[in-house]
């Protein structure tokens, strides 16, 4: 374990100075205690404070809510304020674009400025030290956007580890202030490791073969830790190779090896309780918490603010001998290190202690939010110069479900104001614009009784009831968000209908909350009527056993949840045709702007993956109708993830994508649509044509399953790195200069613009399967019309290394590498070849003990936990599962297999050349009572000729293989 080495010294006995944040000592005061002396090294201050604490006090520091210690003048501290794209959950704050939108800027310098602004606002909120004070921020998210169906796609940066590492490092540096000994805030990278599915997210295991772990998932987390741009990681909910991430020994063995700085690692919320809970990994919380501490976790986020459960578990672990006081000291010291570096014990709160609430939503931050929203938008298509629009064409209609509203996501702050697309365009033109949401307004009449579904009036709304008349209280605007899910907004008060646990009430400003209870499905029946199904959710698994519908439940006609056979059958009458209204709005206009996309609380968010990647059918129909009514139509897609878009991308002349980009969305879009800003955003993940292009969301092996732009062999809708501009760029020749490459880039158009110059490599020949191309460097450059810039992109032989499974280390193979530069992963403008002097990976030596996980190929196996503490083994899911160990040198006299096996009784066959090749021998295994109890088995081999061959181990179902050798 790479932890901090405590320096022991004699504690100076002095009166305790009750110097809190912002307090100053009187002139006659004695010297402060060492832990309050900012002139001393951090380690000495931490050790001094740790030595003054009792065991109980140290244990109290291991929970998210660290209590005050009055006898030392120490105030309470809370880990974990959310800050993905602004400070969340504390009130009005500057709301920047979602993380995926920030990343689409491909601009580390801008990311650092945004991070710095968010750090300032976190300080501003915490200046007066409110209850739950803490500057340990849970951001950024370094999880890779491996699968666009992931519900939390909006929280990440990219499908590429190099880009993710660069952007998370920049954002983290902004949050920290750049000096690891004097922190503005203490950012924590989420969520370690391989956390990319929400479906059963606490019980599914992410299988990471060593190459995928090293080259892909770990590679996204390492840069920020290595650069001191993060102060720790949050362990994820999922299992990794069969072991809960909360007890993953990587927290010590890997993450702490990336830096000499102290790290403070935290658990995800309620994750410790999952260990004896739904994960059933350890039988008691005491055993689970002890294992987590031993693995490198320092803080337990569990049971909300009730630290007593954790404290009792730690006390029990100490009593049972599962932990020693030294384990408590280690974890507590990491917590104290962060607090010392945050300036908590410094006079006046340290370097950043004077930052107050005046920074929150300051004019400078509002300008930065607009800049970020502008740079993060991506021009996907621009045919025949459809964009930019002409300001002289002022008769404009802005229509669509997102045309005049801004939505926020779960980790968003509260918008201090909202500039909608319609607002922004109206302000740009200096005149009002015609708007239409383009959604139907309907009534629902009970086919059996003739009564109407009615809602309450006033801002508080009221329960849905059966009413007699079809007035405003009986009218609802129906928005289609895809996958059959709609929302109902009452015309009586413009509030959304949601379930509150006992009734359906029209009292919600927007769909949202942890349990998004404003979701419905209108299910058409054979007789033409509709059932109104409640599609909200309470937990990951519905609390009801069958789908539930709306129907009368009380004598007064109040509607509640009923079984399908008791559901009311409604006649749906359209009072206002949304498409017809939008068509009327755009007819004869100089320009029609259609804004479509997603609601970030529906069909894809934390705890819920997307099952449908397409645009909502009603929105697609709206775009087609508007385009038919007005050929001067451009489309803005505002959502949190790639969308398949169907045929629309062929039918409309211009497509502009933006994330849910915060308070300045409308101004940014107006600047881009009218050419006051030149689009410069680039996609950070592949946009696929269909879900059929993707394997299971639970398949984490990007190499074997050909995932992401690195390995995908199909034709994407839009490639990684794609983004158009209103100007054009010419690339010169690519030349090797020093430790990198140079290329001259010229703006050949009439507008100033930004180009993101992207450098990719491809290894022509390798022992191992290599990416088709891999991003190695990038730079965003601003060029005036006609200007030429020499862009230098670093690339060393070390950057070409991949993980050698035969020797478990990084290796740069000698050979020829294609070096390519261009505007996207498929738009490559210049290339050259680089002959690199490197290693040749030797044949496998089967006489050495080989870990089974270091295979070259496989079928029918899962990666599993070798023991509950550490190590990975291979488990056969069914008979005939196999592992390939390529290019193995077999010597004369090779006559025996030795293998370490656990689990069910079975066999291991040694075959040569293929899984059904010649059989060299079979090891028989009688099984063990525990999957963690391994036994050594042997088998005689015959017919093995001297030379090099691919060796296959064929396993029977239920067998676990940890290591083997062939001699």
From TrEMBL:
One of its GO terms (molecular function) is beta-glucosidase activity. CDD domains: beta-trefoil_FSCN_BglX-like, CBM6_xylanase-like. It comes from the Bacteria. The keyword Transit peptide does not apply. InterPro entries: BXL, CBM6, Cellulose-bd_IV, Fn3-like, Galactose-bd-like_sf, GH, Glyco_hydro_3_C, Glyco_hydro_3_C_sf. PROSITE patterns: CBM6. SMART domains: CBD_IV, Fn3_like. Keywords: Hydrolase, Signal. The keyword Transferase does not apply. GO terms for biological process: arabinan catabolic process; xylan catabolic process. Residues 848-967 form the CBM6 domain. Belongs to the glycosyl hydrolase 3 family. Catalyzes the hydrolysis of a non-reducing terminal alpha-L-arabinopyranosidic linkage in ginsenoside Rb2 (alpha-L-arabinopyranosyl-(1->6)-alpha-D-glucopyranosyl) to release alpha-D-glucopyranosyl (Rd). It is not able to hydrolyze alpha-L-arabinofuranosyl-(1->6)-alpha-D-glucopyranosyl (Rc). This is Exo-alpha-(1->6)-L-arabinopyranosidase. It comes from Streptomyces lincolnensis. The lineage of its organism: Bacteria, Bacillati, Actinomycetota, Actinomycetes, Kitasatosporales.
